[in-house]
Amino acid sequence: MKKNKLSSPIQLIRLIVQIVFFILLPGLYINAFAGIREIYSGVIHQNFSLRDYLPQLIGVIAVVPATIFLGRFFCGWMCAFGTLGDILYHISRRVFKISFRVNEKADRVLKYIKFIVLGFLVVVVWSLGIAGFASVSPWNAFGILVTFGKLPDFSYAFTEFTVGVLILLGIVVASFFIERFFCRYLCPLGAVFTIISRLRLTKINKPRQKCGSCKVCTNNCSMGIPLYKYDKIDSGECIYCFKCVSSCPRNNAGVGVANKEIQNSVAAAITVAFISGSYFTGTVVAKTVGTSNESNITVSSDVSTKPASSIYKDGTYEGSGIGFRGATTTVSVTLKNDKITDINVVSHGDDAPWFNPAYNSVSSQILSTQSTDVDAVSGATYSSLGIMDAVSDALEKAKRE
After folding, report:
1. Single pTM value for the model
2. Residue 149 carries which DSSP code?
3. Fewest CB atoms within 10 A around its CB: which of 31, 159, 260, 368?
4. How far apart are CA 86 and CA 178, in angstroms?
5. In the chain, what are the domain boundaries?
6. In contact, 395 and 46? CB cutoff 8 Å
7. In a 3-state reduction of DSSP, which class is residue 18?
8. Alpha carbon of residue 195 to chain centroid
9. CA separation for the pair 223, 343 (Å, rounded)
10. Cα torsion angle, 107, 110, 115, 121, sign
């Protein structure tokens, strides 16, 4: 008799974990991908600073090591975007009775698209530094609209992320028909995880000699993996949703770590605990580092000689700009002899993991170049722009009439 996978204890536990992470850490996948970008950009440009970018690397520290050694549990259990896909597909099956399956060969080919997306981002956006793609990211649009405790700001999302919102809507529609549509075919972070998870120790085992002609596990696989072909699932596409284990009528599918069988709940608990512990430990450390980094940043150039034609009045002036999701960023800017000598944050409404690295980088660049037209920090574009606008506003107030 076929098992009811929805009432399976492991599926109920997984659902609870998904809901908790969706509420508490909906942007963890964005943080992880932005962190990977920072590491890559820092390495190729030889300017990576662990201290300055630690807040942005929390997601990487929490998620990537767990994925390398234990597999893509994050995708199946903790990714808010994946949870959204699961919810939409469940609604389509239970409410609208939609039944649609992608041909196995077509599915295999379509899964290469996410590697093309990743390659485009690495070569065009990361390596060449071509800006303007933040507004087309469905992740950014999702992050704007889905923040627990706040109403979705549709007006701001459509204004600032028009293309991203349209792509997100397309993904939502596709997710009603194809389970984990974005995860299977478009997710660049999923492409990274598909590659690095091939080294994992945790794998699904299912000896085919006990399966007969049964394909229940394949029919229930969230990622469309043809499980009936394998005794051991080595595919990097596996997200450890354990639907194959829950639905197997012969109790033939199980979880193994380094060739030793363990309970699937134990494997899941270890991974969730590792990622959660790493994230919150990293947050505490980053907050400590961020507090020390928020001390005054002062320009070291000579300001003793007053220019013949002065543009700004000496003194300290406050200015404001709009950061992430319309939050206000206020800074104080100190000027002497037409030079910016000091920049301090008075207040901001952005999240610390994004704001702190933006402040450290943008402030340093402004002080060294004496210009507000500097590079934004990847993954913290709107926090960066808010700081630039705030400094520009302060300079306008300091101008001589």
Report:
1. 0.79
2. T
3. 260
4. 10
5. 5-131+178-285, 294-398
6. no
7. helix
8. 17
9. 49
10. negative
Q: What angle do CA 309, 313, 319 make, to 5 degrees?
A: 130
Say how far apart CA 349 and CA 326 lie, in whole Å.
Answer: 9
**Residue 277 exposed, middle or buried by CB count within 10 Å (0-12, 13-18, 19+):** exposed
Written as tens digits, the pLDDT of the chain (401 aa) is 444 444 588 999 999 999 999 888 887 888 888 888 888 888 887 777 777 667 678 889 899 999 999 999 999 999 999 999 999 999 998 888 877 889 999 999 999 999 999 999 999 888 887 766 777 888 777 877 766 456 667 777 787 778 889 999 999 999 999 999 999 999 999 999 999 998 898 999 988 888 888 899 999 999 999 999 999 998 999 999 999 999 998 888 888 887 788 888 888 899 999 999 988 887 777 666 655 554 444 444 444 455 556 789 999 999 999 987 778 999 999 999 889 999 999 999 887 767 877 887 788 789 888 999 887 776 677 788 899 999 999 999 999 87
294-398 has CATH 3.40.50.450 classification: no
Helix (H, G, I), strand (E, B) or coil at 83: helix
Number of helices and strands in the chain (H, E): 18, 8
DSSP letters, 164-193, are HHHHHHHHHHHHHHSTTHHHHHT-HHHHHH
Maximum distance among all Cα pairs of the chain, rounded to whole angstroms: 90
Return the amino acid letter for 314: D
The b-or-e profile of 192-225 (16+ CB within 10 A means b, else e) is: bbbebbeebebbbbbeeeebeebebbbebbbbbb
Q: In the chain, what is the straight-line distance between the N-terminal and C-terminal CA atoms, in Å? A: 85
Task: Quickly list H helices, 178-308.
Answer: 181-185, 188-196, 216-220, 243-247, 264-293
Q: Could you please report the per-residue DSSP string of 30-46?
A: HHHHHHHHHHHHHHHHT
Could you tell me the two tokens for 19?
């809901």
